[in-house]
Specification:
Layout lengths: L2 H4 L23 H11 L4 E3 L2 H12 L7 E2 L2 H10 L14 E3 L1 H5 L6 E7 L5 E8 L2 E4 L2 H9 L7 H8 L3 E9 L4 H5 L8 H10 L5 E6 L5 H11 L4 E6 L11 H15 L5 E3 L11 H13 L4 E4 L14 H4 L6 H4 L2 E4 L3 E4 L4 E4 L10 E2 L3 H9 L11 H13 L9
Parallel strand pairs: 1-4, 8-9, 8-11, 9-10, 11-12
Antiparallel strand pairs: 2-7, 3-7, 4-5, 5-7, 6-7, 13-14, 13-15
Helix pairs in contact: 6-7, 11-16
Bound molecules: zinc ion (ZN).
Zinc ion binds next to loops.
Length: about 400
């Protein structure tokens, strides 16, 4: 690998620095991995939630640089109250490891614990270790109000906070074995930030725009992606594949739909597909910034922010996820947010447009709500071709059939 020749002398590959300047790598290899794995067998095990399993993978591979572990109390409060890490870098989402009071009471500061996930055989799969530097309580309602902008438990992110343990463990982590999902769910697309940075460099891409999604690519998304691609070198389609709400379309069906549309409608030398192993928090504006910073770590220079990015229900204002970027020093965020309107097909324009580019009345616009999409797919019907390419519709209809029609798409 020509990593050395592509390095710019700054300690990272690519045209944009990782958040904080250094790409974190907490994945142990070779003998270190072996000896730590051996040691972990006899340690107290903390069994992580699906979201924490995702967080662990993201920290280990550097996607959450500069984080090297789960947040300590000072970092936690700095992020919740002030949207910055204690070192002054923008950071909007607490990345914490909750445990119940009983577990917390059995642990001591300075203790090394094993981090595990439930295994398919009913046992646990050991992934790494954590040195506990702090054990601290936190106020769930404050976190909900500040980060999710609501204390209602109808919000899926807030409901999760209320259900999780009352105490947080802070400290650095080391991983010797990535989660089972890293080997079983899209391993060929699960590029690490170090890998995507090399791949972008090999393609000769200086300017790369990332597209975050947890939905199929409808015509509207295709329009936005291609509009963005006009002003950069490469497009990185980076669907989130960690835990989502159960009415979101499952990741495997979505990946099939992406592959179908990329094959027929995107230039292969300008587009790359990868998966982002994060869980959805549905924290709207704050999660938009979190998503952008993670994509900077993957080596992207631009980030598409749609209306109501990472939103759910009616908890966030239409432009909140775009406006929040203005609250930060652009030099510290560094990745450039590209703010887009909703797009749709206009029968008079005979093209995909936005309210910014089309002068016609709404009655000419082809709109489908999430509920309408769900209903059509549940009935096994193709979506209108002005809304979704037939190649994508076909994958979705077949996928939904296989799942018995119990899943659908969030609007
Ligand atoms: Zn029009």
């Amino acid at each position: 690998m020509a990593e050395k020749t592509q390095s710019n002398g700054k300690g990272y590959v690519g045209s944009i620095a990782p958040h904080g300047g250094t790409l974190v790598n907490r994945k142990l290899r070779g003998e270190m991995a072996e000896s730590t794995r051996q040691m972990a067998q006899s340690l107290t095990q903390i069994v992580l939630s699906p979201m924490n399993v995702s967080d662990l993978e993201l920290i280990a591979v550097g996607a959450l640089s500069p984080l090297t572990g789960f947040m300590t109390e000072a970092e936690y409060h700095s992020v919740v109250d002030d949207m910055h890490l204690t070192n002054g870098l923008p950071w909007t989402i607490p990345v914490t490891l909750p445990v119940d009071r009983e577990m917390a009471g059995s642990l001591a500061i300075g203790q090394t614990v094993a981090l595990a996930e439930p295994a398919p055989d009913g046992g646990t799969h050991l992934m790494g270790v954590m040195e506990i530097s702090e054990i601290f309580p936190y106020d769930k309602e404050t976190e909900a109000r500040e980060v999710y902008l609501t204390t209602e438990d109808a919000h899926p992110g807030v409901a999760r906070i209320y259900k999780q343990g009352d105490m947080l463990l802070g400290g650095d982590i080391w991983v010797f074995d990535l989660p089972i999902a890293a080997q079983t769910e899209f391993p060929e697309l699960r590029h690490t930030p170090a890998q995507t940075r090399r791949m972008f460099a090999q393609n000769g891409w200086q300017r790369i725009v990332a597209f975050q999604t947890r939905n199929p690519i409808h015509r509207a998304h295709e329009y936005i992606q291609k509009t963005a691609l006009e002003i950069v070198d490469g497009l990185f389609i980076h669907p989130l594949v960690g835990e989502t709400k159960k009415d979101d379309i499952p990741a495997d069906v979505r990946i099939q739909s992406y592959e179908a549309i990329l094959r027929d409608y995107y230039p292969a030398d300008r587009v790359m597909l990868g998966v982002f192993p994060a869980a959805m928090r549905y924290a709207g504006p704050r999660e938009a910034v979190f998503h952008a910073i993670a994509r900077k770590n993957y080596g992207c220079t631009h980030f598409i922010v749609g209306r109501d990015h990472a939103g759910v229900g009616n908890y966030y204002g239409t432009y909140d996820a775009q406006d929040i970027f203005d609250e930060f020093d652009p030099a510290l965020i560094d990745i450039t947010p590209l703010k887009f309107e909703h797009a749709f097909y206009c029968k008079k324009c005979e093209a995909v447009v936005t309210a910014k580019t089309c002068p016609h009345d709404r009655e000419n616009w082809v709109f489908l709500s999430g509920t309408q999409v769900r209903e059509l797919l549940a009935k096994g019907e193709m979506l209108p071709r002005e809304f979704t390419r037939p190649e994508v519709s076909k994958v979705l209809v077949e996928g939904m059939k296989r799942l018995g029609g119990e899943n659908g798409e969030e609007s």
